[in-house]
Amino acid sequence: QVQMVESGGGLVQAGGSLRLSCAASGFIFGVKIMGWYRQAPGKQRELVASITTTGSTNYADSAKGRFSISRDNAKNTVYLQMSSLKPEDTAVYYCNTIAWGTLNAYWGQGTQVTVSS
Questions:
Q1: What is the pLDDT of residues 10-61, one digit of tens each?
Q2: Is 109 exposed, middle or buried (CB count within 10 Å of its CB: 0-12, 13-18, 19+)?
Q3: Distance of CA 77 to the CA centre of its chain
Q4: String of b and e for 57-86 (b: at least 16 CB within 10 Å)?
Q5: What strand order describes the sheet that includes 3-7?
Q6: Distance, CA of 12 to CA of 105 (rounded, Å)
Q7: Using CA atoms, how far apart are residues 29 and 64, in angstroms rounded to an integer?
Q8: How many CB atoms lie within 10 A of CB 14?
Q9: Do residues 59 and 83 touch, judged by C-beta distance below 8 A?
Q10: What is the percent of the chain where pLDDT is above 90?
Q11: How far lies 83's CA from each of 13, 47, 97, in Å?
């Protein structure tokens, strides 16, 4: 079955960095546009970054210049390198295909990122 397993979150001070990983299975990873989303307490889940099958990337304004999304199709894994972290980046981070994210389907458990000031 379809599965997304996110990891790499944690507690970090403002200005610090984290690298998130998402291992995907149960579908043909290499043909899917992948995205990293996040949901802060009391807020809706939002798309932070996306990457196409050929490696083109797109970022939310809040992530531009600080976050970098990448993928390894051989490992069915998508990454999110986050730097210059801010307290407002605190959220649970999820990966998903863009299509399923739009349908609100196949979410994993996410990984918690907490940025202290």
A1: 999 999 999 999 999 999 999 999 999 999 999 999 999 999 999 999 999 9
A2: exposed
A3: 11
A4: ebbeeebeeebbbebeeeebbbbbebeebe
A5: 3-7, 18-25, 77-82, 67-72
A6: 30
A7: 25
A8: 13
A9: no
A10: 97
A11: 11, 17, 23
| Contact residues for 94 (Cβ-Cβ < 8 A; gap 6+) | 4, 6, 36, 37, 38, 39, 45, 107, 108, 110, 111
What is the predicted pLDDT for the residue at 29? 95
Q: Are 99 and 31 in contact (CB under 8 A)?
A: no
Cα gap 36→88, rounded to integer Å: 16
Q: Tell me the one-letter amino acid at 32.
A: K
